[in-house]
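Problem: given the chain below (236 residues), write out its structure.
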Amino acid sequence: MKKVCVFIFLISNFLFCERGIYVIKKAKGKIKIDGVIGKEEWEGATIIKKFYRSGDLNKKVHSKTTVYILYDDKYLYIAGKMEDKDIFADVKGEDAPVWKNDVFEVFIKPKFYSSHYYEIDTNPIGAIFDAFFPRKRAGFSRFVKYSSGVKVATKIKGSLNNWRDIDNGWEVEEAIPFSAFSQTTSPPKNGDIWYFSICRYDYSVYLKRGVELTSSAKLHRRTFHLYNDYDKLIFK
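Solution.
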């Protein structure tokens, strides 16, 4: 009986939590992954500008983020423009802990009733961490060898790792192949609904606490893995 009650609670929370709904369209042409978010190639993209402090939804966000999303038959395209006065990145290599730097993180949960989800992270110098999780807290180290095949390019607008000056920010473009999600789902069709959140760590000498965690979804606790709160992504 206890397990049934817990299941009902989780489903109710997933169904009725205050989540955003975003409809994304197919790209009109080829998107070149070069770190430059061109107006023409990203024409028609779904744009997300509202971000929230994870676990502190009513507090002001200091570092603004703008996200662009499109797709085609092979890829999910995501780009981000990040305000950042103090760009910091020194982590390199495959599946390194990029969350110790400024980082742009993509969380994707394709299936409503499953516990499977994916994480793809990039720092300002293009280091990538990606992981597949069969469920939350299922043993982090077991899944870091997963490779999404994501294509990434970044552009820094300022000086890297120099806290003495004020930077403008950095940009990222990503092409995530739908084959990255083949363990749990097929490529999306018109009308399909996935769940997602775009998240950031911003480390800065200009922030009172030294770091700010923000997300496109309203995450009610200070963790990016709270997929019950993720927003809807509708393919059209």
